[in-house]
Amino acid sequence: xxxxPQSRRVTLAIAAVMFMLVLDGSILNTSLPAIAASQGVPALxxxxxxxxxxxxxxxxxxxxxxxxxxxxMRRMFLTGVGVFTLAxxxxxxxxxxxxxxxxxxxxxIGGGLLLPIGRTIxxxxxxxxxxxxxxxxxxWPALFGxxxxxxxxxxxxxxxxxxxxxxxxxxxxxxxxxxxxxxVPRDDAGTPRPLDVPGxxxxxxxxxxxxxxxxxxxxxxxxxxxxxxxxxxxxAGLALLAWTVRHLGRAKHPVVSxxxxxxxxxxxxxxxxxxxxxxxxxxxxxxxxLFQLGMGRxxxxxxxxxxxxxxxxxxxxxxxxxxxxxxxxxxxxxGAGLISAVSIAAFAWVDAQTPWVLLIxxxxxxxxxxxxxxxxxxxxxxxxxxxxxxxxSSTLAAISSQVAGAMGVAVGALVLxxxxxxxxxxxxxxxxxxxxxxxxxxxxxxxVLQFRRxxxxxxAGVLQARAKRS
Length: 470
Known about the structure:
Number of domains: 3
Pfam families: MFS_1
Protein name: Major facilitator transporter
Subcellular location: Membrane
Keywords: Membrane, Transmembrane, Transmembrane helix
Shape: globular
Structural class: mainly alpha
GO cellular component, one term: plasma membrane
């Protein structure tokens, strides 16, 4: 993966920031009981710590591209890192649940700015032959963060303090700001375009209602059984998003342009990628729970059992580009997607009696196919887009990622709760995890059906440009 030195430096700095964001989200779930105990409140009462961040980030996402064009991408990215870092420090110093929730809202505002603008900066002006390498670096935070977060959160909460979950972000954020200020070239603010207020309110409101409802389902399943409120919230969000999509298609200056969907490769990669990412994000949520509840492991050892999964993600990066050049996007997405779906479904038969060799092999196959799929999806999404559509595509990709992340946890939690409820159990058993993995595998299989719509030569220009350079 031979990127130009300047492009590699900028992309690595941005990837480090993205890793900080993803890790911050995944590390917190295992730390909520410790935070609640230190604050003297029930763990359930602190679910707002998770939800507040997601809702704030969702509300800011549609506005990020406009702000980047209005004030400059570099300036807004540095502002986002600064806001996120300062809010992380204040989260770590919070003395009451109210203070913590408030600072998580501020953290979410910074995070909502970073996701789309960072991707735009990394891809801005990139040569076609560099796109695969850039996307491979940008994907690793989404792959590794959910795997490393739970065990790291357990270790910090058990042997240090929950406050370090937030304080760890401070040196990373400061270092990232220093490197980004040095490496990222200054960009001039663009010609101001009118702010599409109806589109902004519709997109922000729809995303907030939808993701908020999904989080409500996933974090409050015990209380939500038999109640319609969380599902009504999801339905209201979907209805408002449907209106917003119609508005954005007609608006003269939409807050988020839908023009990237005119390219078949972007449309298929985004729709199929959302389905695949839902399954991929659900798996690291379900596996540690299976190891603890189904196999009797403690939180730390359950996290350690994911190491083969993590190693396969990392090892796959060395062969991703040659595989894409050899076979092309469509065959790779079909093959990796099918392997990923089958391996996720295979976890339905894992229990305490499963041989270690078989379990490790399954984790390696699942991790490798997951890595291959996500790199190919993210690269294909921008492979055929002109430079002027990168800002819109980055915002749409960030929205897709946010939705898929929330959906991945919600689908797993919902199936576990429903299956346990139907069997009259208060807590999930191995059989309930079997149902959850099978349902999640269906999402991955639906993504494969989407990838079948791709043309055989989809994204060929990027691969050919890289092959000529090699």
